[in-house]
Amino acid sequence: MSGTHQGSRDQANPLRQLRLDQLRRRTSVKWREYPDDVLPLWVAEMDVPLAEPVARAITDAVALGDTGYSAGTAYPEALAEFARRRWGWDGLAVERTALVPDVMHGVVEALRLLTGPGDAVVVNCPVYPPFYGFVGYAGRRIVEAPLGDDLRIDLGTLEEAFRVARSGGRPAAYLLCNPHNPTGVLHTADELTAVAALAGRYGVRVVADEIHAPLVGVGARFVPYLSVPGAEHGLSLMSASKGWNLAGLRGGLLVAGPAAAGDVARVPFEVSVGTSHLGVIAHTAAFRDGGDWLDALLAGLDDNRRLLAALLAEHLPAVRYRPGQATYLAWLDCRGLGLGDDPAAVFLERGRVALNSGLAFGTGGVGHVRLNLATSPELLTEAVRRMATAVT
Ligand SMILES: Cc1ncc(COP(=O)(O)O)c(C=O)c1O
């Protein structure tokens, strides 16, 4: 596909641009949650400078005082074009989108559109912890469908969860994470097609959280859920937030399949008006002009995945790591280390390195940690060194 991974030759690796003392001056949660002797590789923020086209768009807006309410369709147009270029998908229709304040509030809104209070929402655990919190906040109830031992969606388990979710005849939704956080697994077109067929058979509505979609390894291809046959009733949440590190510039898009146009049309003005205009400007610039920067990042993340595998093999061979093809997250099975149910607590206390505890990710998280590898090779190396000192 044209344009994909072209820019990495010309652009410097964004993961190698910042020194530790510069990063420690940041005031975001990654750098402020723990004391300065702790190396933070936890929450999904990246140790990168802002992509130049994004920085320019925001700086121009600030210079102009362009800090009012958002208007127009530049954001979905930029995303539709990105989807065409990167994923070969031309099914993102601007008129079937709605601005949402951010992805998780978009998920809440989608669940409110499709289900009623107390209805079931199926998730594939272990999964991004806020899925539990936000489903509860939306007044819905979680039904877990654990991933298989291969960390992929288990269709038999999913079918049983759909059956349970729909028992009593109430509406139900399936909150799919595509690509999957924390494993970095990229679902295939065949898997997504089977999911769509199953959802259709049980009358379960699919809400796909596709926030990590731009973050796919070199040579791999992201498949948008809405692009597979049978997904016409689905909704997707997309954003430039993870791909370009824009969590502080909030914004997201709810995207509907052709048969869900009526649902997205019901997103209230009161929700869409909550999207930050500066966020919209930043996300639009990222999708429109941030391709070369993204390619350089993706090449750097591939290097880091390989580096992490090599470091673990050398210093912590009892840790099981299956590098995913997407996201910048690594899901580490530490049960072989004998550190108990919550190895992240031990790594923090003894090694002074902050990772996410697997316990928050639902069933399947015991004895696991999530490591954020969107940092420099030097800090990644230092993190594994610290983890190893916690064990010896
Ligand atoms: C799967 C997933 N969904 C949503 C979010 C958060 O998105 P937002 O900040 O736009 O709500 C994250 C952040 O890491 C994530 O990993």
Automatic annotation (TrEMBL):
GO function term, MF aspect, one = transaminase activity
Q: What is its EC number?
A: 4.4.1.13
Question: Which cofactor does the UniProt annotation name?
Answer: pyridoxal 5'-phosphate
Keywords, A to Z?
Aminotransferase, Lyase, Pyridoxal phosphate, Transferase
Q: Which family does it belong to?
A: Belongs to the class-II pyridoxal-phosphate-dependent aminotransferase family. MalY/PatB cystathionine beta-lyase subfamily.
Q: What protein name does the entry list? A: cysteine-S-conjugate beta-lyase
Positions the record marks as coiled coil are none
Pfam families, sorted: Aminotran_1_2
Give the Aminotransferase class I/classII large domain ranges: 74-386
Q: Which organism is it from?
A: Micromonospora humida
Ribonucleoprotein among keywords? no
What PANTHER family is this protein classified in? CYSTATHIONINE BETA-LYASE-RELATED, PROTEIN MALY
Q: Which domain of life is it from?
A: Bacteria
